[in-house]
Amino acid sequence: MVSAPWRSWRYSCSLSAIDGQFRSLENGTLFNVVGYSLSAVFATALLLYVRVAGTGPLHRLLRAPILRYVGRISYMTYLTHLFFLDIASDKLDLGRWPAAALGLIATLSFSSVTWFGIERPLARLGTGDESRAS
After folding, report:
1. Would you say residue 109 lies in a domain?
2. What is the pLDDT averaged over residues 52-73?
């Protein structure tokens, strides 16, 4: 008899294989219709597995402090990454990898500054509780 966490992991792996086939179409019609849905289903299945299992290397990886921090600054990272990548690649005329590295560093730095300087203080102000916005 196969245990429940292993069964969930097996389903997640099969979803990953299906999702990989759709991702190889690089935004073709089929991917735009079905692929994004499969990506969401796969990500949800993976997170549910990690949440239900509660142990293991994947759970420890997703609970790592650095990933939790990146999760906190992710919205500003999403909003500004194209701006910084554009500056690094077009305006500074760097190669592909140096531009990507510089864009990543600039994006994460800016997102961190806005998190500590704007977002966290506003979250604390809105809740009235200093301990809630970590």
Report:
1. yes
2. 85
